[in-house]
């Protein structure tokens, strides 16, 4: 009887231990979830570098608006049910800050093979390609422009935001023209408008805004085939579970279907044009 009792006790202990492992495993996996951690913290941190109309920052108040801040705020409030905090960063640091857990999402990032080595991405919220805006009265530039070769000449200066996809793209295309790298949106536009630069390399949406704001002189050249055709997404840390990314992707799909994403785009364009006047 003693041997039987000891055996039964041992079996019972093993069964209890196994049950604990089985029931604790999902809990531990859930604790490792990015969104679960965000819910526990009560705040979704969104790393933001300015790039109107995708990400707009009011210099007077520091408040963020635009397509991706609006999407980030909606995701935090409607899906995760937490507050949303925007963290200022630059394009040179927007990936590194995400990797070092300074924020949970990076806003308005192009999904590139190089970045995929360091972080993961949501599905595309909006399409992207690189175009070039210029002053149609600039005597240094041909009329019309048919190809990159027409502008890739010594003495032509192309400005671009440092660290961006358009920086890498245009730097790879130009062999003879000078690339002027500047830290932000405002600096590149001022360089073009002050004629320190002959052309501005930026994405199709922001260059469209520039030409609409200054129809008297600003025109855009759209290379064919398109340069760096891709989507603009949210960036997440590399260890983000696939299930969490699926939650974010479903939210983006829902925002497209219900029309909110289109409304965010229109509001972003309107706000950006108003600020440029």
Task: Give a description of the structure.
The protein is an alpha/beta fold and 277 residues long. The chain has two domains: 34-126 and 230-276, 3-Layer(aba) Sandwich (D-Maltodextrin-Binding Protein, domain 2), CATH 3.40.190.10; 129-228, Periplasmic binding protein-like II (D-Maltodextrin-Binding Protein, domain 2, 3-Layer(aba) Sandwich), CATH 3.40.190. It contains eleven helices and twelve strands. The chain has helices spanning 2-31, 34-41, 67-80, 94-99, 113-116, 148-151, 165-173, 185-193, 204-213, 242-257, 260-276, and strands spanning 43-48, 56-57, 64-65, 83-88, 105-110, 119-121, 126-135, 157-161, 178-182, 199-203, 218-221, 227-237. The strands form two sheets. Strands 1, 4, 5, 6, 7, 8, 9, 10, 11 and 12 form a ten-stranded mixed sheet that branches. Helix 3 (67-80) runs antiparallel to helix 11 (260-276) and helix 9 (204-213) crosses helix 11 (260-276).
- Write the H/E string, N to C: HHEEEHEHEHEEHEHEHEHEEHH
Q: What average pLDDT do the residues reach?
A: 88
| CATH-derived architecture of the largest domain | 3-Layer(aba) Sandwich
Using the alpha-carbon principal axes, give the shape: elongated
CATH topology of the largest domain: D-Maltodextrin-Binding Protein, domain 2
Distance between the termini: 93 Å
Q: Measured on Cα atoms, how large is the radius of gyration?
A: 25 Å
Number of strands: 12
Q: How many domains in all?
A: 2
- Low-pLDDT segments, ≥5 res: 1-31
Helix content: 40-55%
* CATH homologous superfamily identity of the largest domain: Periplasmic binding protein-like II
* CATH C-level of the largest domain: Alpha Beta
